[in-house]
Design goal:
Number of helices: 6
Order of helices and strands: EEHEHEHEEHEHHE
Structural class: alpha/beta
Distance between the termini: 67 Å
Largest sheet: 8 strands, mixed
Strand content: 15-25%
Strand order of the largest sheet: 1-3-2-4-5-6-7-8
Shape: globular
Radius of gyration: 17 Å
C-alpha cells in the first residue's frame, strides 16, 4: 500500500527583528526570503534561514528611527517546484500576513538566490513598495515551465515598485547574465529599476558582504521611508540601460560614497 504524502507545514513569518531603540509602532517591514532549491518538497534548511539573520539585524538597525521591522520568512518547503512556484506563493502569503499584523505599512521583499526570484515574482502584491533581489536564481526562459505564456519571467507587474538587483560576477550557481537580461526587460516596463554588479564575488556575496549590506540598507530605507539614496544608487536608477544595470558596487560603499 502506497504511503500518503504528509501535508506541507504552513508558511510562517520568523520572529520580528527590531532594534532596541526603535519606536513601538512598526512603520515599515522588510521580508527576507531565503535561498532554496529548484525542486524539493523537503522542509527548508535551517541554515538558509540562519544565513539571512545577520542581514535582518543590519536592516533593522539601519531603519531603527523609522520603525522598521524585519522578518525572515519560513517557507513550507525548500523547492520552487516548477509551475507550483511554492516560494513565490509563500512570499505572497507573508505579505498578506504583514498587512494583517501591521496594517497599511510599506513592504520590501528582499530575497537571495531562489528567494530573489520569489521576491521578483511576488513583487506585484498591492502592499509591496520595493523589491531587492540578491543573486537571483532565474532559469532560462521556459526552462521550468513556471513563467508566462512567452516563456519569460514576468516583469510588468513590477511597475510602480522600486527594484534593485545585486549579483556577483563570479557566481557559479546562478547566472549573473540572466539577472541582467531580466533587469533589462524590467527597466523597459518600470524606470525605477537598477542593478549592481559585485566584481569577483560569488553566489553568497561574502567577499564584499559589508558593501552589499550597506547597499541593501540604503535601498530598503530609501524605498520604504523616502530617505535620499546614496549617490551611486540614485545614479543607477536614473541611468539608461545598460549603465544603470551594470553599476559596479565600489569597495567602501556605505563609508565613503554617501551623498
Amino acid at each position: 500500500m502506497a504511503q500518503r504524502a504528509l501535508p506541507l507545514p504552513a508558511a510562517r513569518l520568523g520572529r520580528a527583528v527590531r532594534s532596541a531603540g526603535a519606536p513601538t509602532a512598526v512603520s515599515g517591514v522588510v521580508l527576507l526570503l531565503p535561498d532554496g532549491e529548484p525542486d524539493s518538497h523537503r522542509r527548508p534548511s535551517p541554515f538558509s534561514y540562519a544565513f539571512q539573520l545577520p542581514l535582518a539585524r543590519a536592516l533593522a538597525r539601519a531603519g531603527q528611527e523609522d520603525g522598521l521591522a524585519a522578518h525572515v520568512v519560513r517557507y513550507r518547503c525548500r523547492g520552487w517546484n516548477a509551475t507550483a512556484a511554492d516560494l513565490a506563493t509563500d512570499a505572497e502569503w507573508a505579505v498578506d500576513e504583514v498587512v494583517r499584523r501591521y496594517g497599511d505599512v510599506p513592504v520590501c521583499l528582499a530575497g537571495h538566490g531562489m528567494g530573489g526570484r520569489a521576491a521578483l515574482r511576488a513583487g506585484g502584491h498591492a502592499a509591496v513598495d520595493s523589491v531587492l533581489a540578491m543573486a537571483p536564481w532565474l532559469p532560462e526562459a521556459g526552462a521550468d515551465g513556471s513563467n508566462g505564456a512567452d516563456g519569460a519571467e514576468p516583469v510588468k507587474h513590477l511597475l510602480g515598485r522600486q527594484v534593485l538587483l545585486v549579483h556577483g560576477t563570479n557566481d557559479a550557481r546562478t547566472d549573473p547574465e540572466l539577472s541582467f537580461r531580466l533587469a533589462e526587460r524590467a527597466k523597459k516596463a518600470n524606470r525605477d529599476t537598477c542593478r549592481f554588479e559585485v566584481h569577483s564575488d560569488g553566489h553568497a556575496l561574502r567577499q564584499h558582504r559589508a558593501e552589499v549590506t550597506a547597499l541593501a540598507a540604503d535601498f530598503v530605507c530609501g524605498s520604504l521611508f523616502g530617505r535620499a539614496y546614496a549617490r551611486p544608487v540614485a545614479d543607477a536608477l536614473a541611468a539608461p540601460p545598460p549603465l544603470g544595470l551594470r553599476m559596479p558596487l565600489a569597495a567602501g560603499f556605505g563609508k565613503s560614497l554617501r551623498g
